[in-house]
Amino acid sequence: METTMCSLSEVIRERKSVRKYDPNYIIPRHKIEEMLQEATLAPSSSNLQPWRFLVIDDQEMKKELRAIAYNQEQVETASAIIAVLGDTEMYKSAEKVYQSSYEAGFIDEESMKKVIQSTNNTYPNAPFEARANIASFDAGLVSMQLMLIAKANGYDTVTMGGFDKQKFAERFELSERYMPIVLIAVGKASAPAYQTTRLPLEEVVRFI
Q1: Could you tell me which of 128, 160, 132, 159 has the C-alpha nearest to residue 146?
Q2: Average pLDDT for residues 68-93, to the nearest whole number?
Q3: Where are the domains of the chain?
Q4: Where in the numbering of this chain does the Nitroreductase domain appear (predicted)?
């Protein structure tokens, strides 16, 4: 995958939350797929990868989504909106995940069977809130990774937690298994992002 910057540090420093997008700029779907493929290399609890994505790039659909997202302009003007969902029943992917690791030669068959059994004994019995927290945390990891990858490819992003999640779930017919977590606008900026500062390091870090 091509990158436009030479170091991770530059990508991190250049990435800003952009809310003004060129409405005529289109990111090809294959490019979005490439970025998502790389983003899903993010870590997750027990490698169960409890993230799912809805990519909304149809203009009429974006217009409809804008109303659900409290009329935020970038929903309609960005090239695409990537909705990150959390899978609260991530344990149902255990056999597929660990079978794949076994076939790739990363674990032996005995270890595969043990970890599948352990997962199936643990996760289904965990409270829903605990599983929802895991899904939310892991979705945050993949979301941040996606935004950095997008910036490395010359695109701009902003995350949006401000949308009616119940209406979103109803409109896109999500089962109770999947919870909407965040919307990520991706496209080309049409105006500079607002600059921001950070708290001094001594106020947020303590060595013990």
Answers
A1: 159
A2: 98
A3: 8-204
A4: 12-188
Rounded-to-integer distance, Cα 88 and Cα 121, Å? 15
Q: Which CATH number fits domain 8-204: 2.30.40.10, 3.40.109.10, 3.90.550.10, 3.40.50.1000?
A: 3.40.109.10
SS3 85: strand
Range list of β-strands (E), the chain:
51-56, 80-87, 156-160, 178-187
HSE-CB for 5 with a 13 A CA cutoff:
17
b (16+ CB within 10 A) / e for 156-194? bbbbbeebebeebbeebebeeebbbbbbbbbbbbeeeee
Predicted confidence at residue 3, as pLDDT, reads 42
Quote the pLDDT of residue 171. 97
Lookup: tokens for 28: 């090809």
Residues 33 and 122: their CA atoms lie apart, in Å, by 32
What six digits make up the tokens of 54? 């809805």
Burial 52-81 (b: 16+ CB within 10 A, else e): bbbbbbeeeebeebbebbeebebbbbbbbb
